[in-house]
Amino acid sequence: MSLKVWEEVRGEWTVLRVSGEMDLVTSPAVRQRVHDAVAEGRRSLVLDLSEVLFCDSSGVGVLIASRRLMRSCAGQLRLILPARGAEDGSHVNRVLAALGVRRLFDCYPDLPAATGQSATTGPLTA
Q: Which part of the chain is the STAS domain (predicted)?
């Protein structure tokens, strides 16, 4: 399976929607899109990972590097990792939790919550 990344703007937020598999071959595309957004002066970034079906350590490395990059430029990074239940929840959410790095990220269940357009939903707890 391949990886697709497309971009949209929601107010001050740049949203990168990612679908497919984040692995050694495909995850550099996500890293490049994050770097491109920062180079264009965008400092509020949402990575929508709700359609990511697989994520290996290289994908996790890209997420951690993206967090580091956003922090270095006084930006903010939010992840969308929907919780659909223990058995069919977000693969990325399970991987981050298993590696013990889930707590490093501000995670939200959906786009309105991540971009502040939902008054009722805040960030997910680790």
A: 15-118
CATH number for the domain harbouring residue 8: 3.30.750.24
For residue 17, give its domain range.
3-114
Q: What is the pLDDT of residue 84?
A: 59
Length of the chain (residues): 126
Based on the structure, what is the number of domains in the chain? Answer: 1
Predicted structure pTM score: 0.87
Q: What is the pLDDT of residue 24?
A: 95
| Region 50-63 average pLDDT | 94
Average pLDDT over residues 68-91: 81
For the residues 88-107, what does the mean pLDDT come to? 86
Give 87's contacts (C-beta < 8 A, 6+ positions apart).
Answer: none
CA dihedral 10, 14, 121, 125 (to 10 degrees): 180
